[in-house]
Amino acid sequence: MAAAPALSQAVQDFVRAPFRKMLIDGNWVAAASGKTFETVNPATGEVLANVAEGDAEDVERAVRAARRAFDDGPWATSTPTDRVKLLLRVADLIEQNAQELAQLETLDNGKSINESLNVDIPSAAGTFRYYAGWVDKAYGQTIPSDPTFFNFTLREPVGVCGQIIPWNFPLLMAAWKLGPALACGNTVVLKPAEQTPLSALRLGEILQEAGLPDGVVNIVPGFGPTAGGALVRHPLVDKIAFTGSTEVGKEIHRETSGTLKRVSLELGGKSPNIVFADANVEDAVQGALMGVFFNQGQVCCAGTRLFVEQKMHDEFADTLAKHASAMQQGPGMDPATRVGPLVSKEQLDRVTSYLEIGKKEGAKAVAGGERNTGKGLEKGYFVKPTVFTGVKNDMRIAQEEIFGPVVSVIPFKDESDAGLQGHHTLYGLAAGVWTKDVSKAHRVARAIRAGTLWVNCYNVFGASAPFGGYKQSGYGRDLGKHALDNYTETKAVWVDLRR
Ligand code: ADP
């Protein structure tokens, strides 16, 4: 194990405070109930920090603050230039505090420090910078209508947005949600996941340092059914943006039907990654590994259903298993680690139960297949990178989202079989295809019903490209120009020129 980088003093101070407070109306405050909850370091199972536990009363205060800031505060009269400068400052400050944010993220979530430092933190900064560019470019249109009228559209902010985010990319998901919401002039109550609240709270300090007016972003950590539920039900919240499980997404869909809040949902997936026999094998193996073991497989678009053309199936599965078994597993703070712990005990139990389900269904674990309790890892939530072969497309491990480092290798006959099997699932978030045949790649890209399709690559993202699901993977798109649609209402104005 390589030596872990020393924890910065700022991180030590941040986690050692008696408890981290929540941000409401520009003030850092305790929960109305006085309650706190523990966030755990998944590499050791030890308590990392204590955090104020938000509930309905805190959500009430936060929503009222966001409402005031939207209706009357300086945010309502801020100019586009003010907002551009602010978002750019946030991006700069994230970069200036990258080491600290990366360490916090790794300690809280478990992910490797290299991924925190080289992927999550720069992408979060990049997202704010990208949306700074849209502030003064998202505008309405003039409409050719009856010449006695002047008819045009205004694009206006939706209002108070409740944003509920998951634990797999805590800071990055906050950036995906806050960037477009703020660019369009909304105010926000953000609820980070209970497993990983720390980087969002640190981001709250950064937003203040950047000069965001009080009440524009309020951050209420707490649990899903309590703090999250209160936000979903609150009558003064105009929009809910949610990233998380399909199950909770459906609940939010039902809960919001009473108020007809605007809703965007980015939910689960069970994405096919399809390898044809004419692909470059080494590239496809590396892509498959990255597609499923990146972030310990805790990625909604992970390529967990790995379809491999029959004639190269055995050789491919063999190479994949060798590589998977050789991946270095350890605490995320160790720079040599490629696969860290799962985020929580609950996830550990969930993923290991799927390992048993897979074995009972008759699949064979040719790599991993069990918890890793090797030296120094006994108390952490480690699961070995697992490759299952002998998987049939209708098995539970091929259909249900496991959200861990587990891939099912499934043979297919030919192109039509790949397409057919590829979209045989409830989900439609993403897919990959590996082939040197350009036409075939395009045909499969069209055949698969999913929000993102990668050809000869996997897990590639950019702030300017939309991301979201077909089918039960949700609706609405994060990122790109498309996310602006989530955060604006369109108003048609008619002016009678005769009066
Ligand atoms: P996971 O099962 O992967 O933890 P969830 O969908 O449960 O994913 O959680 C994603 C986010 O949704 C978290 O911030 C969580 O607190 C929140 N959440 C969970 N349940 C609810 C709920 N009933 N209402 C609102 N938010 C919820």
Can you describe what's shown?
Helix content is 38%, strand content 20%. It has 16 helices and 22 strands. Strands 14-15-16-13-12-18-19 form a seven-stranded mixed β-sheet, with helices on both faces. Strands 9-8-7-10-11-21 form a six-stranded mixed β-sheet, with helices on both faces. It has a three-stranded antiparallel β-sheet with strand order 5-6-22. α6 links the parallel β7 and β8. α4 packs across α5 and α10 packs across α11. The longest helix has 20 residues. The model has no long low-confidence stretch (mean pLDDT 96). The site of adenosine-5'-diphosphate has 16 residues, from α8 and α9.
Bound molecules: adenosine-5'-diphosphate
Main sheet strand line-up:
14-15-16-13-12-18-19
Number of strands: 22
Radius of gyration: 23 Å
Mean pLDDT: 96
* Main sheet properties: 7 strands, mixed
> What form results from the Cα inertia axes?
globular
β-sheet strand percentage: 15-25%
**In terms of per-residue confidence, which ranges show pLDDT below 50 for 5 or more consecutive residues?**
none
End-to-end distance = 79 Å
Structural class: alpha/beta
Q: Into which percent range does the helicity of residues fall? A: 25-40%
Number of helices: 16
